[in-house]
Automatic annotation (TrEMBL):
<feature type="transmembrane region" description="Helical">
    <location>
        <begin position="618"/>
        <end position="636"/>
    </location>
</feature>
<protein>
    <submittedName>
        <fullName>Glycosyltransferase</fullName>
    </submittedName>
</protein>
<dbReference type="InterPro" id="IPR005150">
    <property type="entry name" value="Cellulose_synth"/>
</dbReference>
<feature type="transmembrane region" description="Helical">
    <location>
        <begin position="509"/>
        <end position="531"/>
    </location>
</feature>
<feature type="transmembrane region" description="Helical">
    <location>
        <begin position="469"/>
        <end position="497"/>
    </location>
</feature>
<keyword id="KW-0808">Transferase</keyword>
<dbReference type="InterPro" id="IPR050321">
    <property type="entry name" value="Glycosyltr_2/OpgH_subfam"/>
</dbReference>
<dbReference type="GO" id="GO:0016760">
    <property type="term" value="F:cellulose synthase (UDP-forming) activity"/>
</dbReference>
<keyword id="KW-0472">Membrane</keyword>
<feature type="transmembrane region" description="Helical">
    <location>
        <begin position="7"/>
        <end position="27"/>
    </location>
</feature>
<dbReference type="Pfam" id="PF03552">
    <property type="entry name" value="Cellulose_synt"/>
</dbReference>
<dbReference type="GO" id="GO:0012505">
    <property type="term" value="C:endomembrane system"/>
</dbReference>
<dbReference type="GO" id="GO:0005886">
    <property type="term" value="C:plasma membrane"/>
</dbReference>
<feature type="binding site">
    <location>
        <position position="164"/>
    </location>
    <ligand>
        <name>Mn(2+)</name>
    </ligand>
</feature>
<dbReference type="InterPro" id="IPR029044">
    <property type="entry name" value="Nucleotide-diphossugar_trans"/>
</dbReference>
<keyword id="KW-0328">Glycosyltransferase</keyword>
<dbReference type="GO" id="GO:0030244">
    <property type="term" value="P:cellulose biosynthetic process"/>
</dbReference>
Length: 662
């Protein structure tokens, strides 16, 4: 019955929403004030699309039954990722992981490379993994994704339980989840993240009952429930396949860049005086023809190793011929080549041609011999048939500061399945102050937008349309910051200036708007079957500066190559008193709303505005102020200290929170 009523309200919401927004575009715009009228209707259109994507998500709400037992031969590695978290916190989680009933190996993956952490792990019979000798904690390499990728290469379990340093697992977590892998196409089982240091009123909005409930259950119905970074079990085979596919793609991309750079360097070399020599011209022609042939073979799907081998041999022959003919021009060009940074390790784990090196190589006026030596160096850097070094693969995606969503999307694109197990099987720690919460939310949003800009799910051909839209809906939600600015501005403009963005607040407006809003809210109530959603709705609007910053910084990172820092979320409350500066934009908006409220009432009493419009906008301002008020409590929040609780300092988990568990 839940699915029936949910679908009914989805249909009603879409019909009423389309009716309202279409009327807004076609019949209600105040074109004399287009500068606010058009942004407002665009914001309303954005919100309609957002609720339609939510409706599509919960349309296939999946309530799973407990899986059958897994074969007792299944081998499991439990990974606990850490960088700089307190040792006692990490060990509390590690010891709980060691006590998981299913036979397994427990590993602490310490990117901080702390000797005391190693000593504690080894003294308690727990495995310890850190990066290689070239790893320095001060310069993280792909952060958590790199840490996990490294551990994959030194462990062997068929399945991997991944836990953040603060997520204490239940002893039966594997007993209740491994059975899903009886389906040999299941690659991922995600369980909820639940926080035990959060009070009932959840002032920082840390609990996510809507996401770890109807949204993930809905995505599960579309085979699009995704990896959330912790409390998840993954199949090693799927990750390794993903790494191999990524390696091939990265190698092919690198070969393409190398061939393009080679042809560009040769064209530049033709402009030099030496190129007029018949022998030199012949050699350049041969090498250029070899690169063009290689490009053709690449498009036809030929072996990458054969392609690069043949081109490199052709370049070798040309260089030897020219050196034998004229050694004098070699010295200066070789010095230039030695100074160039030709390659770096790319996202796929392979050696790729660095962009700045390609630009310098393409832009310089090379001598013929220097050009050929540069072509040789570039091709050597990306050669796929070298036997003197290991070629690493990187299964977990490193295109984003949040590796989880990108990895899950790539796994789905390979045809694997995912499962959302709706039962709390690990207990974690939420941020205990506003600054930490904002840092965490910003990283999540930045990572999500990076994935959108780099691997837009709507154009990933190997995903089903349901999967594309499920990933896109999460990404789309982070654009709400721009809509929020318009929603705050519109009532301020009307109450202070008397400018209405709609042609009139007539019967036609109310008969369309009110039913849509009522049914929209009822949809959340029905889909959530009683779970609290108001705190989440507040923060979706109140954190508009965070969402806008995430979008702009992610775009800057992708388009201009400026790096985003990876900030580990602190697991303890940060020192200091209330930090009102953290919410300065929201304070300014709240003050403007309050001033507009007073001015609007004065204008009404003075007969300068009409009553209905004032009443509607006063109600709008009141709603906005209630939304923003959550941040006052967040700034003043001093953490949650229960009288009695488990080791992490939180309350005992109430029994009722696992009702409707699966």
């Amino acid at each position: 019955m839940t699915r029936f009523w949910t679908r009914l309200f989805v249909v009603l919401t879409v019909i009423l929403g389309v009716n309202y927004v279409a009327w807004r575009w076609l019949a209600s715009l105040n074109w004399e004030a287009w500068w606010i009228a058009v942004p407002l209707v665009i914001a309303e259109t954005y919100s309609l699309i957002d609720v339609m994507l939510f409706g599509l998500t919960v349309w296939n709400l999946k309530i799973r039954k407990p899986p059958p037992p897994a074969p007792d031969t299944a081998t499991v590695d439990v990974f606990i990722t850490t960088y700089n978290e307190p040792l006692d916190l990490v060990m509390t989680t590690a010891l709980a992981a060691k006590d998981i009933r299913w036979p397994h190996s427990t590993w602490i993956l310490d990117d901080g490379d702390r000797p005391e952490m190693r000593e504690l792990a080894e003294s308690n019979g727990i495995g310890y993994v850190t990066r290689g000798a070239d790893w320095t904690p001060d310069m993280p390499r792909h952060a958590k994704a790199g840490n996990l990728n490294n551990a994959l290469m030194v462990t062997s379990g068929e399945y991997l339980l991944i836990l953040d340093a603060d997520q204490i697992p239940e002893p039966d977590i594997l007993d209740k989840t491994l059975g899903y892998f009886n389906d040999d196409r299941v690659a991922l089982v995600q369980t909820p993240q639940y926080f035990i240091n959060v009070p009932a009123d959840d002032p920082l909005g840390s609990q996510a009952p809507l996401f770890y409930g109807p949204i993930q259950q809905g995505k599960d119905g579309w085979n699009a429930a995704f990896f959330c970074g912790s409390n998840a079990i993954l199949r090693r085979e799927a990750l390794m396949q993903l790494g191999l596919v990524g390696y091939v793609k990265a190698t092919e991309k690198s070969v393409r860049r190398a061939l393009a750079a080679s042809r560009s360097a040769i064209k530049k070399a033709r402009r030099s005086d030496e190129a007029k020599n018949p022998l030199v011209e012949q050699m350049l022609n041969q090498v250029e023809a070899a690169t063009e042939t290689a490009q053709t073979e690449l498009e036809a799907g030929a072996s990458l190793s054969e392609i690069t081998y043949r081109v490199r041999r052709k370049v070798d022959d040309a260089v030897r011929t020219l050196v034998a003919a004229d050694f004098s021009a070699l010295q200066a060009d070789l010095e230039e080549i030695a100074a160039m940074e030709l390659a770096h390790v790319g996202e796929g784990g392979v050696t790729t041609v660095a962009t700045d090196a390609v630009d310098r190589m393409s832009g310089r006026d090379w001598s013929p011999l220097g050009a050929l030596e540069s072509v040789h160096a570039v091709l050597d850097a990306i050669s796929v048939e070298r036997t003197d070094e290991a070629q690493p693969i990187m299964p977990l995606a490193t295109i984003s500061v949040t590796e989880d969503m990108a990895t899950a999307m790539r796994i789905h694109s390979l045809g694997w399945k995912s499962v959302y197990h709706h039962e709390i099987l690990a207990n974690g720690l939420a941020p205990e102050d506003l600054k930490t919460m904002l840092t965490q939310r910003l990283r999540w949003a930045q990572g999500t937008m990076q994935v959108l800009l780099r691997e837009n799910p709507l154009v990933q051909r190997r995903l089903t349309w349901g999967q594309r839209l499920m990933y896109f809906s999460t990404m789309w939600s982070y654009l709400s910051g721009f809509a929020a600015v318009v929603y705050f501005a519109a009532p301020i403009i009307y109450l202070t200036l008397g400018i209405l963005p709609v042609s009139s607040l007539s019967y036609d407006f109310f008969i369309r708007f009110i039913p849509f809003m009522v049914v929209n809210q009822l949809l959340f109530v029905v889909a959530g079957h009683g779970i609290p959603t108001w705190r989440g709705q507040q923060y979706s609007l109140a954190l508009f500066p965070t969402w806008i910053k995430a979008c702009t910084t992610a775009a800057r990172n992708v388009w201009f190559g400026r790096p985003l820092g990876f900030a580990v979320t602190p697991k303890a409350r940060q020192s200091g008193g209330p930090s009102w500066s953290l919410i300065r934009p929201q304070i300014i908006v709240a003050v403007l709303l309050a001033v507009a409220l007073v001015v609007g009432i004065i204008r009404l009493l003075a007969g300068m505005s009409e009553p209905l419009g004032t009443l509607v906008n006063v109600a709008w301002v009141a709603f906005d102020l209630v939304v923003l008020s959550v941040l006052v409590k967040a700034v003043l929040y001093k953490g949650f200290v229960p009288e009695n609780g488990p080791e992490h300092g939180g309350p005992e988990r109430p029994e009722e929170r696992n009702a409707d568990a699966v």
